[in-house]
Design a protein that fits this description.
- The complex is a heterodimer of chains A (206) and B (530).
- Helix content of chain A is 43%, strand content 6%.
- Chain A has 206 residues and is mostly helical.
- In chain A, the strands form two sheets. Chain A has a three-stranded antiparallel β-sheet, with no helix packed on it.
- In chain A, α2 crosses α3, α2 packs across α4 and α2 packs across α5.
- The longest helix of chain A is centred in the middle third of the chain and has 19 residues.
- In chain B, α1 runs parallel beside α6 and α1 runs parallel beside α10.
- Classes of the chains: A mainly alpha (206), B alpha/beta (530).
- At the A-B interface, α1, β4, α5, α6 and α7 of A face α2, α8 and β14 of B.
């Protein structure tokens, strides 16, 4: 979860600039291009939903998990390479967004499916969660994973999906089991109250 | 081709201090005002929600055209040069300076006294607070004096800040709600704050004051004009005498030369570009630059550094309730007489540092699925507070803006060089000061049964000012206490450049108060509006 003060945000931005796909602005008139949304390929939608079921918490429930997968796909399509990033406070440097590895993410999904067929004789989405988990872990082997990567530059689609979810206000609310609703318009007067607990859906899911 | 534009007052720059001056003059005087801004127009409020969404989703700048290519200076605070200036994306934090800030020399034997006191500025502070709509809570009157109450009720302490205040109270440090230029009640076209959490870099509802609000209002008036994309390259004095006759500018869109003639010129270009304009305008009878009889144009650039720490506390918080708001104290703004000089403005925020979701457990094993959430919840059983203290840096005379003989801007004018330097006293105190601040943080942590997780020093000097220091003595200062240059009766420099020192609190409100004091003086030569 991002710390929201100006200074900490800018510090965060500067520290990870290299890691999350920022690049120095070499041409002042950098063009904006929309990266083709490899994840929007219809073949990938079911795979992405299956991956989301595998790596996201089961507490979310299947409907919410499916919606998060769809949102992730839309989000990756909305990235604009070349868009200017907020220039760091206290620095004269400018930078723009680099490419998003969404094409690679699409390939990784297809590779998971291919590996599933090869090893288990079934599509990835048809496997039980334990086997999917096994395949995902295998596909992440060799990657140096510590905290939470930046979603925009995550080296694997599973990590990008996780990062995108866990940086969301929705994830924060789930973690704290409370309706904090950060980054959303909320009455100022309510700030002094402890956030309400999340409503529990029938079946026990929040 | 050359175009001539005449006005009573020509304001150079369109940032927050320019907005204060233009608004006050246009309300109180019969005056034709032209504001000349080198940068571009910024997006209208109708786009703010979309721009904010792009920022949240992709980290994109909501203000992508807020700078000018080719005007980058090593060490500068910000590239922002646009209609509205840097305050288009300020945090809206508006503490006043403390009375002690104006007399550090006489009270503590350090730095220099200002030629004005806190009391001289109190009414101007109040006016700035009224104009922007400052929400605040007065601290203990001996630490936080003020002539009148804040215009708006304070931003209420969030559930998190109330718990953190109980902690700091227990440590014997009185803290209160940080004053902010964020409405706690709707006002005109502006909504009340609704905790969108993106005050910096963009408030989508207009709760946070930004100068574009003032410009939108003034632009409807026939005696007001704002010319964006127009870079003032030089101020020209009359052939015989010291008055300023015109400002020579270039329209960056068309390349056209524009000559602004006015009765009064107000330089409102911030600490760096104000001094630069005076220096680059030198020549003829003023070989060292305008207003520079003292040789002090560009000198005594001031600011403050900070030490920050993250403290783990045995309490439950809900990070994100109102994350940009903080507690503040002026408890440490008064240096103890018998001790070494050290002052700071301690602040406390809620924080999620150290409590983010992660994908690797302590043993390095990969976390997926339910394990991520389980791990995250375990680590949020305790809380993190961010504590930070600005401390004032006494500026050296050679903490300066000078002209770069080797580098020119796209229009062929020398670029500035910025070199910030501590006064020897400040340099000597630095290690002691930073250690002292860490000891305050450690004591706070202990008082709450917690621990300091980590701390860091930001070597960058924030909220810079100076470069056209104010004073009563023309041989030791650039402007008088109203911002009027000693050398040119119709040339004012306003806001940040005139500051003698930068305190250990955010400077924007003080810069605005100083600008309003200047506006009152500028207005004296103009007919009163009936």
């Amino acid at each position: 979860m991002r710390s929201l003060s100006r200074r900490s945000f800018v510090g965060w931005l500067s520290a990870i600039a290299g890691a999350i796909g920022l690049r120095p602005r070499v041409a002042e008139s950098a063009t904006r291009t929309t990266v083709p949304g490899a994840l929007q390929d219809a073949r990938n939608a079911a795979l992405l939903a299956a991956l989301a079921q595998t790596v996201l918490p089961t507490e979310l429930g299947s409907d919410v998990t499916a919606r998060i997968a769809r949102d992730f796909s839309r989000w990756s399509a909305g990235h604009r390479e070349g868009a200017e990033v907020l220039h760091p406070y206290g620095s004269a440097e400018l930078s723009v967004r680099g490419p998003i590895p969404s094409t690679e993410w699409g390939r990784q999904l297809l590779a998971l499916d291919a590996e599933s067929t090869r090893r288990f004789g079934r599509r990835f989405s048809a496997l039980d969660l334990a086997k999917r988990d096994e395949l995902v872990r295998a596909s992440l082997q060799g990657l140096k994973i510590t905290g939470m990567p930046a979603a925009l530059s995550a080296p694997h689609v599973a990590l990008a999906l996780l990062a995108r979810f866990y940086e969301s206000p929705e994830a924060t609310d789930l973690c704290y089991r409370a309706r904090i609703a950060r980054e959303q318009c909320r009455p100022l007067a309510n700030a002094s109250r402890q956030p309400l607990p999340l409503a529990t859906r029938p079946g026990g899911q929040s | 081709m050359r175009r001539v534009i005449e006005s009573d007052v020509c304001v150079i720059g369109s940032g927050i201090t320019a907005a204060m001056v233009a608004e006050k003059l246009s309300e109180e005087r019969r005056v034709r005002i032209v504001v000349v801004e080198a940068g571009a127009e910024q997006p209208p409020p109708s786009r703010f929600f979309d721009l904010r969404r792009r920022f949240l989703d992709y980290g994109e700048s909501p203000w992508p055209r807020d700078h000018i290519d080719g005007l980058s200076v090593e060490g500068m605070q910000s590239r922002s040069m646009c209609v509205g200036g840097l305050a288009m994306h300020w945090g809206g934090v508006t503490p006043r300076f403390s009375p002690e800030d104006f007399k550090t020399k006489s009270m503590c034997g350090v730095g220099a006294d200002w030629p004005i006191s806190y009391d001289d500025l109190d009414a101007h502070y109040q006016e700035a607070e009224e104009r922007m709509g400052i929400a605040g809570e007065q601290g203990p009157a001996d630490l936080d004096p003020r002539g009148k109450p804040f215009p708006l009720p304070m931003i209420p302490l969030s559930y998190n800040l109330a718990k953190l205040k109980a902690w700091t109270d227990g440590a014997g440090i009185p803290m209160w709600s940080q004053p902010s230029a964020k409405l706690t009640k709707a006002r005109g076209q502006r909504s009340a704050c609704c905790r969108n959490d993106t005050c910096f870099p963009i408030c989508p509802v207009g709760a946070k004051y930004s100068p574009d609000m003032t410009w939108r209002s003034l632009r409807g008036q026939s005696d007001f004009a704002l010319h964006p994309m127009t870079l003032v390259r030089r101020l020209r004095p009359v052939a015989n005498g010291s008055r300023i006759e015109s400002a020579e500018a270039v329209n960056r869109d068309t390349g056209e030369t524009v000559e602004y003639r006015a009765g009064t010129f107000v330089v409102a270009c911030g600490y760096l570009w104000s001094a630069h304009l005076l220096l680059v305008s030198g020549g003829g009878r003023f070989p060292n630059g305008l207003a520079n009889r003292s040789g002090l144009v560009g000198k005594y650039i001031c600011g403050h550094r900070n030490v920050q720490a993250f403290v783990e506390l045995p309490m439950s918080l809900f990070p994100g309730i109102n994350a940009q708001h903080s507690l503040v104290t002026k408890h440490f703004m008064r240096a103890p007489r018998a001790d070494r000089y050290v002052r700071n403005d301690l602040r406390v925020w809620e924080s999620s540092v150290g409590r983010e979701a992660r994908l690797a457990a302590d043993d390095g094993s990969l976390l997926l699925g339910d394990a991520v959430l389980r791990d995250w919840r375990e680590r949020t059983a305790r809380a993190t507070a961010r504590v930070r203290a600005y401390y004032d840096v006494i500026p050296d005379r050679e903490s300066a803006v000078t002209l770069d003989p080797a580098r020119r801007n796209p229009w062929g004018d020398p670029m500035p060089v910025l070199a910030l330097r501590d006064d020897p006293v400040s340099k000597d105190l630095r290690g002691y000061t930073e250690e002292h601040l860490r000891s305050i943080f450690s004591g706070l942590a202990r008082a709450g049964g917690g621990r300091v997780m980590r701390s860091n020093v930001d070597s960058f000097q924030d909220h810079p000012g100076g470069g056209c220091r104010m004073g009563d003595d023309p041989s030791a200062s650039v402007v008088d206490t109203h911002g009027r240059t000693h050398d040119h009766e119709n040339l004012f420099v306003i806001g940040a450049p005139t500051m003698v020192s930068a305190s250990c609190a955010n400077g924007t409100l003080t810069m605005c108060a100083l600008a309003l004091r200047s506006a009152a003086e500028v207005g004296k030569a103009l007919p009163v509006k009936r």
